[in-house]
Amino acid sequence: VIGTRAVSPSLWMRMPEYFISFLVFVEFLGLVHHILMTACRIFIHMQATGCCFGLEERNHRIQRWVRLAHVYFFNHQLHTLQAYIVLLANLMTSLSIAALDKVCCRIHTWWLL
Q: How far apart are CA 74 and CA 19, in angstroms?
C-alpha cells in the first residue's frame, strides 16, 4: 500500500513510525472494543427488561458477545505477546544475575543469604 516509501531511508529508520502506528491502532481497537461491549450490554439489558427471556439467556448472550469481541479485537494475541515479553524479561534478568554470580564471586548469592 505504501510502496517504496516503506524502506526508502531504511527499514530501521522507519521502525519507530511503524511502532507508533501499531500502538495507535491497538488503542483504537481497544476504544472500539469498549464502546461495542458497553453498547451490547445496554442493548441486552434493554431487551431483557422489555422482553420475556430470563437471566440465563441474557448471560448466554453476553458471554457470546464477549467471546466474539475477544477474538475479533486482537485481545488473545496481545495477551500472548505480553506474556512473551514478561517471559523474555524474566529470562534476561535471571541470566544477568547468574552471570553476575559467576563473575563476581557469588555476590548475589552472598547478598541474599
A: 16
Angle formed at CA 71 by CA 30 and CA 17, multiple of 5 degrees: 45
Q: What is the DSSP letter of 21?
A: H
Show the cell assigned to 85: 515479553
Reported confidence tier of residue 24, pLDDT bands at 50, 70, 90 = very high
- Please name the residues in contact with 33: beta carbons below 8 A apart, sequence gap of 6 or more: 69, 73, 75
CB 34 within 8 A of CB 65: no
**In the numeric block, which cell numbers belong to residue 13?**
529508520
Is pLDDT above 80 for 79?
yes
Write the CB contacts of 73 (distance below 8 Å, at least 6 apart in sequence).
Answer: 29, 30, 32, 33, 36
**pLDDT score of 113:** 65
pTM above 0.85, yes or no: no
